[in-house]
Amino acid sequence: MPAVKNARRRYRIINNMLRNKQAPYPTKDEIRKACEEDLFGGEYGDHISESTIEKDIRAMKEEYDAPIVYNRLQKGYEYTDPAYNFDSIPLSSEEMEALQFAASSLLRYKNIEIFSQFELAISKIFETLTLDTDKEGHSKIWFDRKVNTVEGQQHLKPILDAINDYKSIKIDYYSLSSNKRKQYHLKPILLREYEALWYLIAYNLEKKRIQTFELGRIHELEIAEASPLKLGADFDPETYFAHAFGITVPDELKAEKIKLEVSGIFPLLLKENPLHKSQHLKGKGEKAEIELEVLITPELKAKILSFGNNCKVVRPLELQQWHKEEIKKMGKLYGSVKP
User: Fold this and answer.
1) So where does this one cross the membrane (predicted)?
2) Domain for residue 110, yes or no?
């Protein structure tokens, strides 16, 4: 984080501590520890020194007219004017830009039912900010808004309520693999948006395993009883999706080391936008090797195919053989076409 933004965050922490009537007269060390905790996750680090806090207090007094004094009797700092509030000072240009970006990203969700309660707040932000628009009034920040019309969004709120209340749900779900509808009794754990679609990660109470369900294929949903087991309370999405490529995390699969050879513009594109956090790229120019440690899922296979003739699977052999067979099948589509 840039030093200027760090400083303003420290100013706000100092301001909050000086305005806190429950713990008045904070000491220099107490302020330092609070800043250390907020910025670096632990009050006993040495990222912030007491001299830094001294400079911050001086800067707040000189640049923002903060009425800060040291109370020798109480051995701590205070505002001589209790009405002073650093947060009432206008945002910096960097903070304005960050808020504009965040507001623009929220706008794409405003028509989804569960987020409609925040629409007024988002509108107020837009009314208050000087938004980045050109002279014709067109926004200079654009997000894909197709998530507004995704099917299954009506299930978001009841599922979220069931998660928060530790209740189970019963759903009537259409499975693409079996091409039929089936009933499931689930303990919902997590909602996730992926590629403009919403998914439910849930514990199947009958099969005793975690599964993924696309909300658009849920035909009926019923809130059932509260579960005696607090399933999902310790669920860690980072761990669960650590080796996932896409939304699918099959129980029967384990992460494998994948090696691909990519060419053309893809080495540069994949350097700018890695396929996965485990990606290692070797090579420069128009040819490179990509190494990943991921689950071999339908999403991974679709990505490999999307590279066309600019991708070769080196390992594992099973994935390489699958790729060869797919290429043969694609060739047969045009077998009767003459050059």
Assistant:
1) none
2) yes
